[in-house]
Write the structure tokens for this entry.
Amino acid sequence: MIVYKHHVSKHFKKGISRNNGVGEGGTVFLDFNKMKDYLRADGRKWSIAILNMNKEDLHFNMGNEYMATSKISKSCKKGFEPIEL
């Protein structure tokens, strides 16, 4: 399944970060549009990484239907890229 890991953009001085992803215990979004709404409400600039993860590698008890916690570390060759909100 496709999930989205978010990170504050100011931590990426060059704008794009390759070979990064989610660490064990990291929060990921399951719904792209709900993620955009959530991040937009925060007000900061964000970057996201798109990851393909197995359901068994995610913990779904976040109190909502659009977020999960990763049980593993998973990298993404494309890495983090800025997102327009």
